[in-house]
Amino acid sequence: MAKYSVFSLVRNALSYHENWQRAWRSPDPKPEYDILVIGGGGHGLATAHYLAKEHGINNVAVIEKGWLGGGNTARNTTIVRSNYLWDESAAIYEHSLKLWEGLSQDLNFNVMFSQRGVMNLAHNLHDWRELNRRVHAIRLNGVDSEILSAAQVKAEAPILNVSPDSRYPIIGASMQRRGGTARHDAVAWGYARAADQRGVDIIQNCEVTGFVINNGRVEGVETTRGPIKAKRVGVAVAGHSSVLADMAGFRMPVESNPLQALVSDPIKPVLDCVVMSSAVHVYISQSDRGEFVIGAGSDLHVSYSQRGSFEIIEGIMGALCELVPMVSRMKMMRQWGGVVDVTPDRSPIVGKTPVEGLFINCGWGTGGFKGTPGSGHAFAATLAAGEPNDMAGPFSLDRFRTGFLIDEAGAAAVAH
Amino acid sequence: MVEHVPLLIVGGGPAGLAAADTALARGGKVMLLDEQPGPGGQIYRNISDTDEDRRKILGPDYAQGTSLLGVLERDGLRYRPGTTVWEVTPERTVYYTEGGQARVVTADRIILATGAMERPMPFPGWTLPGVMTCGAAQIMLKAGGIFAAEGAVLAGSGPLLLLIATQMLAAGARIEAIVETTPARNYMTALAYLPRALRAADYLRKGIAMTATLRRAGIPWYKGAHGLQALGADRVEVLRFTAGGKPRELACKLLLLHQGVVPNVQITRSLWLDHDWDAMQRAWRPRLDEWGETGLAGIFVAGDGAGIVGAKASAIQGRLAALRATDASAGEGAPLRRALSRELAIRPFLDRLYRPAMEFLRPGDGTIVCRCEEVAAGQIREHVRIGCLGPNQTKAYSRAGMGPCQGRVCGLSVSEIIAGARGVSPGEVGYYRIRPPIKPVTISELAALAEEDEPTG
After folding, report:
1. Which residue of B has its CA nearest to A265?
2. For chain A, how many helices (H) and strands (E)?
3. Are residues B226 and B192 in the same domain?
4. Residues on A contacting B at a C-beta cutoff of 8 Å
5. What is the pLDDT of residue A411?
6. Do A314 and B87 touch (CB under 8 A)?
7. Same structural domain for residues B146 and B240?
8. Is A191 within 8 Å of A46 (Cβ atoms)?
9. pLDDT tens for residues A311-367?
10. Largest Cα–Cα distance of chain B, in whole Å?
11. Tens of pLDDT, residues A198-213
12. 3-class SS of residue B256
């Protein structure tokens, strides 16, 4: 398949861009694969890419019930950062961020990764103390993070209201300058194209209806396009993980909640970093098209529905108008929900399941998009070796039995 | 506290007003939300304020709308004009904006009577300034008695095209020409439905009368026109087309388009209800039971929003839904259903006769279909070539359907184009997933809603 470059752009321009080739094939499933990845979102496709690239395993298929990147990959607020508190999380998210930094080159596909900086606001003394503690802990792990005063916050994002008498006064903020945003669809497409080039079969519109399990060992899956055998199966289906676990006969300590976001009408550039606030439960950035992408809280109820309740959105808007007064006259164009899978300690699960040969990668909660490359990389290593690698090790399903939890409940702007 | 009402009706056209009338007559309490400033919907727009002269211009069918206004005097009705409903949830919570402030109300039963919208008519040049829909011209005529001083060219197909032409004529407007795009073979295929249509001979008589009036006025009338192109530098100057085997060009400053009306399914779609593809009307309609109740108990659809039926049948459907919404017994709907069946006798004939030509359903590659995001038909076909299966994927590929109109304008065209490129029916391709808000809402409106929810002491 052709490499994308300036030369290919010029060559195709000469033929009026009518001869670009398909970015990936659309094969029928083969009867058997070495490794089968369920879920054609960012994580599943990244897993397939790294399996082929890093481990030389090409007899791999990714099966997806809908289309590529149609799930949470298409429904998130595209924020990338690695400022997590605990060593284990810092390791995997920082690994992920490093992969993000070279991802467009690695995939030969522009994922539009923009390191515009991610700012977390502190609104009261408690926030401020916690934020200082986190910044120091994060820096000890070798991850970049800095503290900004209110005046510096105003300089970074002039649209913020830093007046001391506002409802949510801004005392200061932490800033990770290497964080930023990426183009969500491009991530799925880039991984799909790169994996396909290395021989991975990407099979869309193929829903898993059951697992073939003999003597506690997985031998394949039943799908709407017939049975497919596989030596190892990896599940990367985010919000629907417990549904598939149920098919395989075990339970997951995962709750699925709708997480909401909304988009405004487009305006000229006014905000060149990402702003997050835990107190207000909101995160906001401006897309390359000029729309404000606003992430709101997760619903308190458990649901698989890809739509959230409106109470969450409206409750946050008053606070947002105080924080960023100029948004009040902007129009909300779309509101949607994605299903996030949340574990008791708010950290992901990457590793083995009670069924031999069946591996799972889920529970990324609100951190799934930023974790895509790191997650895929660690999961690929785990699937290739049949054992979790160093990075995935601490995120075993077993930790909920042993008690070695990785408590990241305070890591996101959204309480969940 | 969130306000609660037993029956909420969305839309104040014939279906909504008739539904309110029936429910109130049965002792119900009704809240009627309508986006328009006065009752009547599109068909009877401004009916309560229109003087005798303008009624004469708009014709006897329009004047019939006054018979629906009695409902506004009834006890138990809370009529709220000028309110925009932008979200309805399956749990029957309705969010709307009134006077720049968002509000919320819950209801035991909801009747959606949101009516129809004009079918967009994409062809080369349809986005030029000076090109409008006939419906827009009719709104100006009904609401303010306004019509363009310079002559207009009317192009398209459908009974409303003729009606608007006669209304404009009566108002003293100049019509330069009518360019009818109804394909010649439609007249043959529609014949099969003529016997049934004779049961509703009244409609046929009206059609013949309108045609005669326009003929008498000596308006140039081109039939079977195809290959339409609107040309002009900064605005429309020329309409080019082929009719009677000859290429023609008409100078025009105002081009009014019409290609029939289609159900406005934005709210029912946003509720994730089942919709069926109506191959006769080439549009979607929500799946309903014999009363007009949807798959979600307590939510009904009446009128053109459930498939195009016309004003009279819409009113009957409104009454049927209101009967069920006020717990009428099964037998009470029978007389209404008989009347409905009579009114619907004309539909298959009209639907078949005025089925839009393919060039407007699935326009050529260069024609813009999504006006908000400026996506051309050819781009949609290109998406299909590289693996796009349905309209929701086009959003990721080119943002088609993601602009301020929320997909209302391009939805049908995008489904048709994908269906054509894939060689399947639009029913198989599906439609956009419609997201709330149905109409964009400002963030401050939302914030005001949150404040109102807090206890006030």
Report:
1. B404
2. 11, 18
3. yes
4. 20, 22-24, 26, 67, 69-70, 74, 185, 204-205, 264-265, 307, 309-310, 313-315, 317-318, 320-321, 327-336
5. 62
6. no
7. yes
8. yes
9. 556 667 888 888 899 988 898 888 887 778 889 888 999 999 999 999 999 999 888
10. 76
11. 999 999 999 999 999 9
12. strand
Look at residues B213, B242, B259 and tell me which one is the last residue of a structural domain.
B259
Enclosing H/E stretch for A320? helix A310-323
Owning domain of residue B50: 2-117+262-328
Helices (H) and strands (E) in chain B, counts: 18, 22
Q: What is the DSSP string of A79-92?
A: EE----SSHHHHHH
Model pTM? 0.82
Chain A residues within 8 A of B396 when measuring between CB atoms: 69, 74, 185
State the distance between the two ends of chain B, measured CA to CA, in whole angstroms: 11
Contacts of B417 (CB under 8 A, 6+ apart): B362, B363, B369, B377, B380, B381
User: Comparing A117-126, B53-62, B314-323, B410-419, which segment has the lowest mean pLDDT?
Assistant: B53-62
Whether B450 and A317 lie within 8 Å, measured CB to CB: yes
Q: Cis ω on the peptide bond leading into residue A269 (within 30° of 0)?
A: no
Assign A367 to helix, strand or coil: coil
Rounded-to-integer distance, Cα A345 and Cα A85, Å = 13
Q: Residue type at A114? A: S
User: Mind telling me how many Å the CA of A264 is from chain B's nearest CA?
Assistant: 9
Distances (CA, A) of B87 to B19, B96, B103, B444: 21, 7, 11, 16
User: Does B125 share its domain with B175?
Assistant: yes
Structural domain includes residue B416: yes
